[in-house]
Design goal:
By secondary structure, this protein is of the alpha/beta class. The chain has two domains: about 270 residues, 4-Layer Sandwich (Metallo-beta-lactamase, Chain A); about 180 residues, 3-Layer(aba) Sandwich (Rossmann fold), CATH 3.40.50. The chain is built from 13 helices and 22 strands. The protein has a seven-stranded mixed beta sheet. It has a seven-stranded mixed beta sheet with strand order 7-8-9-10-11-20-21, with helices on one face. Strands 14-13-15-12-16-19 form a six-stranded parallel beta sheet. A hairpin with a 4-residue loop joins strand 9 and strand 10. The longest helix has about 30 residues. The protein is globular and about 65 Å long.
Length: about 450
């Protein structure tokens, strides 16, 4: 038996692994590379997709799902197994990904005429996405899926709606993929499930060397930043991933708006994808925790409150910039690498009264990382812009478990894995977590390397 890593090994994007059991090959995730990794291996899976019998998808985030249409285009003919909520979110994310690629190809075509540069080939089209979506087969949490000699059970990872850990029975021995491990107390979602035992564990390490703030204080800090900015006459611009993060922010703002503590401040959700994702949330209450279910039972939607406006059309989006009263804008995407957020950054970065609030991981090479690192000037949509706005960061919004939360989750194993493979982390994060695991549990903890395979003895 072999475990092969082809993405998110030594980095945090492009998640893709293959489990080979006596020639029966199953893929796990097929995500896009992003940030500084965006040009690395995007079109090369490192193996023959035609040899895969199936693909197991842990969740919908584009760094885990974004190359699925390309995988199908390259000859993969198996089924794609995920939870129903993940399949519904992938329909939104993958169609949007194809649309962005089409827009980029069009812009590259214009640049070729102007500068003579050669445009990059599109990875896939909306037609390719439709073909890929036709291969999805939904699986319920806790139900065993039989694949050849494997038995796979999807467990709730508590990361985003529909996110999963994979518990794979290999004829009496067990391999677990953590996927992206969520945090206890995440809005809407149940806490990550406990796993009783495993022989091998593939564990994410995005925040393997960092600690999030107290989630209980997060809402108070968010309200403080909003009120301080509004008092100066500025806008609060929140770059946010459409899936998970946008909904979490609304959940946090909800009680303050309903109590009148936001002084009638308008909150614009300017992201058609976020709005579509909210519709998916409404269709999948089976993923919700007890707190959210109790709110819904008393007809108190956490996604609706005074002052909120959902913006779908481009004209409505442009009209936000004409609003003179200070306001909140929540727009995709979270790392500021594309989407409508770029227009709002152009209109607000040079205003000292405004605040750009970063609420998630910023990959190396992204505009979000440059802002977080204190850049005084940045390029936005081809224009050089001076950064005069206040730049704030709230790491506590992260949907990834931090080092202490990961170690606590590991503590709950009844029989600890004999070997741990760390992926989905930058080298410093993976290395720090590997050392902590070796010290505490006295087991082999390996930082996975892209393009390498490991024998499961």
């Amino acid at each position: 038996m072999k475990l092969e890593f082809y993405g998110a090994a030594g980095g945090v994007t492009g998640s893709h692994s293959v489990l080979d059991v006596d020639g029966f090959r199953v893929g796990v995730d097929a995500g896009l590379f992003q940030g500084s990794d965006a040009r690395r291996g995007q079109t090369d899976f490192g193996h023959d997709p035609r040899a895969l019998e199936a693909l197991l998808l842990t969740h919908a985030h584009i760094d885990h799902s974004g190359r699925i249409p390309l995988l199908v285009k390259e000859g993969f003919r198996g089924a794609i197994y995920s939870t129903s909520a993940t399949a519904d979110l992938c329909e939104i994310l993958l169609r949007d990904s194809a649309r962005l690629m089409a827009e980029k190809a069009e812009n590259d075509g214009r640049n070729r005429e102007i500068r003579g540069s050669e445009p990059e080939a599109r990875l896939y089209t909306e037609e390719d996405v439709a073909k890929a979506l036709g291969r999805f087969k939904p699986v319920r949490y806790g139900n065993a899926l039989e694949l050849g000699n494997l038995s796979v059970t999807f467990r709730d990872a508590g990361h985003i709606l529909g996110s999963s850990m994979l518990e794979i029975d290999l004829g009496g021995r067990k391999l677990v993929f953590s996927g992206d491990l969520g945090r206890p107390g995440t809005p809407f979602l149940r806490d990550p499930e406990k796993i009783a035992e495993a022989d091998w564990l593939v564990l994410e390490s995005t925040y393997g060397n960092r600690y999030h703030g107290d989630r209980k204080e997060l809402g108070k800090r968010l309200k403080q930043i909003v009120l301080e900015t509004i008092d100066k006459g500025g806008n609060v611009v929140i770059p946010s991933f459409a899936i998970g993060r946008a909904q979490d922010i609304l959940f946090m703002l909800n009680p303050y708006a309903e109590k009148g503590e936001l002084k009638g401040i308008k909150s614009f959700v300017d992201s058609p994808m976020s709005i579509s994702a909210i519709d998916v949330y409404r269709r999948h209450p089976e993923c919700f925790d007890a707190e959210t279910m109790a709110m819904l039972e008393r007809n108190d939607s956490p996604l609706e409150f005074p002052g909120i406006q959902y913006v779908r059309s481009r004209d409505e989006s442009k009209a936000i910039n004409a609003v003179k009263e200070p306001h909140i804008i929540i727009s995709a995407n979270g790392m500021c690498t594309g989407g409508r957020i770029l227009h709002h950054l152009l209109h607000n970065l040079e205003r000292e009264a405004c605040t750009i609030l970063l609420v998630g991981y910023q990959a190396d090479g992204t505009l979000g990382r440059r802002l977080l690192s204190g850049a005084k000037k940045v390029r936005v949509m081809g224009r050089e812009v001076e950064v005069r706005a206040r730049i704030e960061s709230l790491d506590g919004f992260s949907a990834h478990a931090d080092k202490s939360e990961i170690m606590k989750w590991l503590d709950d194993f009844d029989e600890f894995p004999k070997q741990v493979f760390l992926n989905h982390g930058e080298p410093e994060a993976s290395g720090s977590l590997a050392e902590a695991i070796r010290d505490k549990f006295a087991v082999q903890a390996v930082t996975a390397k892209g393009g390498e395979s490991y024998n499961l003895a």
